[in-house]
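User: Fold both of these, please.

Assistant: Here is the first one.
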Amino acid sequence: MSKNKSQLYRSIDALFEGDDPISDAVGQKVLDLILNNAEQAEKKMYARFAVLISLWLVGYGVANGMLADATILGAEFKDLSVSLLALPFGIALFYYGTISSLLATTTYRDAGQRVMRAHWKKVHDNDVHYLLMPPSFYAIEYMTGREASGFTRIVYVGWMLTLLGIVTVVPLICFAHLSYLAVNQAPVVPWVTIVVVVLSSVVVLRGLLLWAQVLSFTE
């Protein structure tokens, strides 16, 4: 178990232990807020991932001549090729946002489970707590896959690994592709494009470091 996860668990357990534990009403309010935050974080993760893929599609369209001009908020842009300079940075930002939302979702869900374990131990120990979590693919897949065996178990693990790969690897491929297009096709001085790609890479690296924290929370 990671240090961050251990510290989170200790902090939550302390709320319900000692000489002055919080009341049932406060415990319920804490749980409600945590579960609401988990749901909002997961929605933001999906939204940011969708924007990321949309940015890649725009860049692909511009680079291949499918999007030559556009009208945005009443302003006409006759040459969209300059957008290739900004799109890698945009993808980097939304990749970072996607992974940070994933980390937030994981953290809030773990916190919610720990509150249930401390406050309603019987509910937690009988796995009923997953019925109280926000309805998402994570909760549904866990409920259907935790007792699977044989071929069904293989399908469950394969599907979860596929989702993991989509969130992790696909954005990196999109970023690398658009960075290549920007360096070769953006109508600006080459060193400007290189600086933008390097700065974007720093943002992507930070996203990868956050991803490492996500993995540590699943230990």
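And the second sequence with its predicted structure:
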Amino acid sequence: MKLLTTILIILLSITTILAEEIKIAEFDARDIDRTTSEFNYNPQLGRAWVETTIYDNGHYEDSVNFGRTYKILVTGLSFDTVSNQIIYTDQNNVVTVCSKLIKKNKRSKKYVLKETHQCSFVTRSSTRTIDDGFYIQNQEILELYLNYVSQ
């Protein structure tokens, strides 16, 4: 039992060591209520990107809170047309499979993206001091990161 526990701890620490992240976007964090992020792709061009929707607190008159969606091009993210996968290739040419295209059900011809849990999105907020020469202001920033597990 102790051997199994030791092996599990070693495997978890290796996975933690191999997990990496890259910053893919940042947004002005004023009035942001929540965000959602997902992968999207164009199979004809072999391209993939991240779509992030930002929902505000609804303090604006024209806000119906459907959210604002942004398409974010991530260097190294692409759609492999042979394997029908969204892959991320880092600067060391290590490939990580982020999503796979699978059939919705056995009889359907429709496909859906299924995430592999090797990539995930993390948001962090921070405060940035901006000095424009006249005033010094603190600005809240929401940073979006892509976490991936190197293989």
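The helical segments are 2-18.
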